[in-house]
Amino acid sequence: MIEKIRTRTFSILFLLGIITTALYLSFTLLQGNERAIPLYIIIYTSSFILFIPAYFLIKSFDGNGKKVVLLVIVLGLIFRAMLIPSSPSTSDDVYRYVWEGKMLYHGFNPFEVAPNDASLKALHTEEYPALVSYPDMTTIYPTIAQLVFMGGYLFSGENDIGIKIIYLLAELATMLFIIGILKHRNLKPELVLLYAWLPLPILEYFVNSHIDAVGVMFFIMFIYLIINDKYIAAAIPFALGIMTKLYPIIFLPLLIKKLGLIKTTIFVAIVTVICLGLLYPLIPNQHPVADSLTTYLRNWSFNGSFYSVIFGITGNGYDAKSLVFALMIVTIGNIALRYKDFLKAVYGVWICFVMFSATLYPWYLGWIAAINPMIGLYSVMSLFFTINITNFTAMAEIWTEYWWAYIIQYVPFYAILVYEFKDQILAYFKKRKRTNIRSL
Fold it and tell me: How far apart are CA 326 and CA 356, in angstroms?
């Protein structure tokens, strides 16, 4: 009887996987040379609807699931491979990736030279750098990201196929390390499906080609090593993650409690040496290395929940950003002081990032998605689904954020989040009440 249930589970998963594969292949075939944003939204929604029963099937699965894990991994890679020939749809960031890879290959420093600089005229083609957005800005992407861009250019020239092949290898590594973390926590390795089949990283990394795929790989490697008490080894992927995208920096406060002051100092020293060593060859002579990054942080905002509320009240973007940044720092500091489980603390910091970030594009959620198989909050999974609604912004002739998009995303997210943490919230207020009574 048990064997029949296992066989049925495998068969249903296989069927769901085949249908999902057909969906992703249909996007590649139907997209043509267009951005096809409505098609993107439909494929995202449809694949997520298939993802939900697959998740609950895995959640209820009981038994030796080696075949199931292999099926999940193989189909997860096939999903991604089906999208490798596709073109960018809801984001044009990859055009900068390709151009900066070409620049670096030909000896130009992307931190020094903007895409439209006259010195690059000999490299111009019909499509590049015309497709690059904000061509007067130098890069905001650190050294490892630049090496990935150049590697992609070496492999496939002025398209993103080479970059996506690098991503495919990175995603395989991410899945394998997720399985390692699941086993370390005595959780079912089949839960890797929560990342391997999640439409968000699949579509954002293999249609829109966001570099986060590589950063997530290094970050999940760091998590695996640090929970196995290999803190010196963990410093290497942590540094490489920072040099891909800067997000890992926000987790440094958690390490003091996890490692202690001396080990944290050693960890930070290793990370600093690696980062400076990688960044040094690209430090520009003419302007600060973080010039464009500062411009981005100062001027960009999109889909931030707390930020949008505060901005709506104050009407001042600078004040709103300052306040949400302060709230993020205070909350992360509180987590760093009080946490009992390092992995849950990491997850909590990512939730803080979701809540207090002034800019929350869909692909930013790929980072918390890699931790989600170990925690699996429904509030976070609801946001993975509803953030697809922000792609309507990319359909407008003029960049437009819609109030109803905020409601569709954040009302379910915060409602479910409060419900999931209701016991902790009630315990906190009861403790405060007892403290106030004793002080009378």
Answer: 9
Question: Which one, of 230, 177, 137, lies nearest residue 370 by Cα?
Answer: 177
Under DSSP, is residue 302 helix (H, G, I), strand (E, B) or coil?
strand
Residue ranges of the alpha helices (H) in 32-88?
37-59, 66-83
- Scanning the structure block, which residue is given the tokens 């296992």? 6
Q: What is the DSSP string of 321-353?
A: HHHHHHHHHHHHHHHHHH-S-HHHHHHHHHHHH
Q: How far is CA 201 from CA 42, 187, 440, in A?
A: 16, 22, 53
Q: What share of the chain is helix, strand, coil (3-state, %, to 5)?
A: 75, 0, 25
Which amino acid is it at 354? V
Average pLDDT of every residue of the chain: 93
Give the number of other Cβ atoms within 10 Å of residue 394's Cβ: 16
Which amino acid belongs to residue 237? P
**pLDDT for residue 179 is more than 80:** yes
Please state the φ and ψ torsions of residue 131, each to the nearest 5 degrees: -80, -15
Q: What would the two tokens of residue 106 be? A: 């030909």
Neighbours of 294 (CB within 10 A): 11
Best CA proximity match to 303, nearest among 376, 408, 217, 200? 408
| Pair of tokens at residue 410 | 């954040």
Q: How far is CA 153 from the centre of its chain?
A: 23
Report the chain's terminal Cα–Cα distance, integer Å: 64
Name the pTM for this structure: 0.94
Q: Note the pLDDT tens digit of each residue in 191-221.
A: 999 999 999 999 999 999 999 999 999 999 9
Q: Which residues of 7-17 are buried (b: 16+ CB within 10 A; e: fewer)?
A: eebbeebeebb
Cβ atoms of 196 and 73 within 8 Å: the answer is: yes
Mean local confidence (pLDDT), 184-191? 95
Measured CA to CA, the distance from residue 287 to residue 275 in angstroms comes to 19
**Residue 411: beta bridge partners?**
none
Q: Where are the alpha helices (DSSP H) in 60-206?
A: 66-83, 93-105, 143-156, 161-184, 193-196, 199-206
268 exposure class (CB count in 10 Å sphere: 0-12, 13-18, 19+): middle
Rounded Cα gap, residues 278 and 295, in angstroms: 23
